[in-house]
């Protein structure tokens, strides 16, 4: 449709609308007034709307989908990396497993200072040199050259772990045994490298010693009065007039390789405490009992420096109500069957408050289990005293064997444990399932009897360390504990009030 230009050079609005309609229909008017077919125009001169309509419509190719997937992946990757990095912060236990488990080079290292590691390397080099020298001297002896008694003893398998350096003492005042005494000792106890023969315990659970709970089967006292402690402990008769030591190895089940080593290489009288956070707990407990170890369940409780030290999820906390803590306790007790008792993990704060620990000890007493205080303080904790007053089997740890997990410190703690046993008649050591701890415990236990001390299961020394209180003494202790708890709460409230003005000023 032709149009006219106004004198002022503007195009009439109605005419512009008509032009747009004509373009949409595929027709336009040239400046000279002649009709032009759009099909005759080059593609690049057509209006944008017409060009878009004329573009060929093809199905999306694989390259198109892959490019879109790549764009989405690149967009989401920072969020995924951030989420993975936050795992150790939000859940330390899962983070530890994710970043450490399955790396033997990491899990098998011996923690300690740089100087201690250098000394370990130097001792390893010295051991290799001594072994080569002993082999050379043995070869000379085979060629007719004589050997001394020390040379003969040096060639015996595991002699350095039995007697140390010839002519030296083992730290207890006893001189090293003669070759004849060493031969008799090996004949009596066997070689250090010989595998330990299994002595299986009865399969668990036993009928009538468990019941259905909110989270699974939990222990209970049988109708005939049999307790899970009596049924699942390792049978052992204490020797008369002989000091005894017991060792509880904790953290079992968190690492497959360490767990297998602890079950198969440690003496059967060493008790194993299985972590409630381990995987496949029932298999670990079954394998340990099939070997002959009695097992305990770790009971995570709030420490004094919480949350700096985190006992993990489902731990018993002072900030929770009594009912919620008992629900968590029932969840922990339903993790696996066959344990003879429970050992507290951390718990210095939770175990010192009467309102927190008393319901827990009462619950454990009703189920017929043993309670072991695992703080290593060597003194009767409030929880252990409550257990003793209730007639519940109990024990307290005297020494944390590997608070510094180096060979020298572990050996020193074990010597301290022996001295406590000789002085008090009984001693309990608490240890973690570190590789160096397992190795030193095996060597120490092999030569323990020569020091006049017997290694026994933890259950064998039940109720021998803490004396039960009378009714008046127990009531006085309860009132004293409540008074300490009130003072602690008042002090905490005062600290919070002092902190509030400072926060207000900052805001």
Structure description:
This protein is an alpha/beta fold. Among the domains are: 20-54, no CATH class; 210-468, Glycoside hydrolase/deacetylase (TIM Barrel, Alpha-Beta Barrel); 472-507. The chain is built from 18 helices and 13 strands. Strands 5, 6, 7, 8, 9, 10, 11, 12 and 13 form a 9-stranded parallel sheet that branches. Strands 1-2 form a two-stranded antiparallel ribbon. Helix 13 links the parallel strand 7 and strand 8. Mean pLDDT is 78; it is low at 1-11, 26-33, 103-112 and 152-176.
The helix content is 40-55%
Rg to the nearest angstrom?
Answer: 38 Å
Could you list the spans in which at least 5 consecutive residues all have pLDDT below 50? 1-11, 26-33, 103-112, 152-176
CATH class of the domain at 210-468: Alpha Beta
Strand fraction band? 5-15%
* Name of the CATH superfamily of the domain at 210-468: Glycoside hydrolase/deacetylase
Annotation field: number of helices? 18
| Outline type | extended
Kindly identify the CATH topology of the domain at 210-468: TIM Barrel
CATH architecture of the domain at 210-468: Alpha-Beta Barrel
Average pLDDT figure: 78
Structural class: alpha/beta
Q: How many strands, what sense, and barrel or not for the largest sheet?
A: 9 strands, parallel
Distance between the termini: 73 Å
Topology, number of strands? 13
Task: Produce a short descriptive summary.
The protein is of the alpha/beta class and 507 residues long. The chain has helices at 13-24, 48-54, 62-90, 92-100, 104-107, 114-142, 149-155, 159-162, 179-189, 228-232, 256-265, 281-291, 322-333, 354-367, 382-389, 407-424, 435-446, 471-506, and strands at residues 27-29, 35-37, 210-212, 217-219, 244-252, 271-274, 295-301, 341-346, 370-373, 394-396, 399-400, 426-432, 454-455. It has 18 helices and 13 strands.
């Amino acid at each position: 449709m032709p149009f006219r230009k106004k004198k002022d050079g503007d195009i009439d609005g109605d005419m512009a609308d008509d032009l747009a309609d004509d373009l949409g229909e595929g027709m336009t008017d040239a400046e000279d007034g002649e009709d032009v077919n759009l099909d005759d125009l080059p593609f690049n001169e057509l209006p944008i709307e017409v060009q878009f309509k004329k573009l060929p419509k093809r199905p999306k190719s694989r390259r198109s989908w892959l490019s879109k997937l790549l764009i989405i992946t690149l967009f989401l990757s920072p969020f995924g990396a951030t989420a993975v990095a936050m795992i150790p912060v939000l859940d330390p236990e899962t983070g530890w497993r994710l970043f450490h488990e399955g790396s033997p080079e990491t899990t098998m290292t011996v923690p300690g200072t740089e100087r201690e590691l250098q000394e370990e390397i130097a001792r390893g080099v010295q051991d290799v040199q001594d072994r080569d020298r002993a082999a050379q001297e043995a070869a000379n002896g085979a060629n007719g050259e004589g050997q001394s008694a020390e040379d003969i003893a040096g060639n015996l398998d595991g002699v350095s772990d039995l007697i140390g350096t010839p002519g030296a003492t083992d730290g207890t005042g006893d001189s090293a045994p003669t070759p004849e005494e060493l031969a008799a000792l090996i004949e009596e106890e066997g070689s250090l490298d010989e595998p330990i023969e299994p002595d299986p315990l009865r399969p668990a659970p036993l009928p009538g010693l468990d019941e259905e709970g909110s989270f699974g089967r939990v222990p209970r006292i049988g109708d005939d009065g049999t307790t899970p402690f009596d049924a699942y402990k390792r049978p052992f008769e204490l020797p008369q007039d002989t000091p005894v030591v017991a060792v509880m190895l904790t953290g079992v089940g968190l690492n497959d390789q360490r767990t297998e080593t602890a079950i198969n290489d440690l003496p059967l009288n060493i008790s194993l405490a299985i972590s409630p956070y381990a995987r496949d707990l029932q298999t670990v407990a079954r394998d340990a009992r099939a070997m002959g170890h009695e097992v305990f369940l770790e009971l995570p409780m709030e420490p004094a420096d919480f949350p700096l030290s985190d006992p993990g999820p489902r731990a018993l906390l002072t900030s929770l109500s009594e009912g919620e803590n008992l629900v968590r306790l029932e969840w922990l007790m339903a993790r696996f069957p066959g344990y003879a008792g429970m050992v507290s993990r951390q718990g210095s704060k939770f175990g010192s408050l009467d309102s927190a620990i008393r319901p827990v000890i009462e619950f454990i007493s009703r189920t017929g289990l043993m309670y072991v205080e695992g703080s290593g303080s060597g003194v009767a904790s409030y929880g252990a005293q409550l257990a003793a007053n209730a007639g519940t089997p109990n024990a307290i740890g005297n020494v944390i064997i590997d608070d510094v997990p180096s060979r020298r410190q572990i050996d020193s703690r074990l010597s301290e444990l022996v001295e406590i046993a000789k002085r008090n008649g009984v001693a309990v050591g608490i240890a973690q399932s570190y590789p160096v701890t397992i190795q030193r415990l095996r060597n120490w236990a092999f030569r323990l009897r020569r020091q006049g001390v017997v290694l026994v299961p933890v259950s064998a020394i039940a109720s021998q360390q803490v004396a039960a209180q009378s009714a008046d003494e127990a009531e006085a202790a309860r009132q004293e504990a409540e008074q300490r708890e009130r003072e602690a709460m008042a002090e905490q409230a005062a600290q919070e009030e002092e902190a509030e003005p400072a926060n207000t000023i900052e805001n």
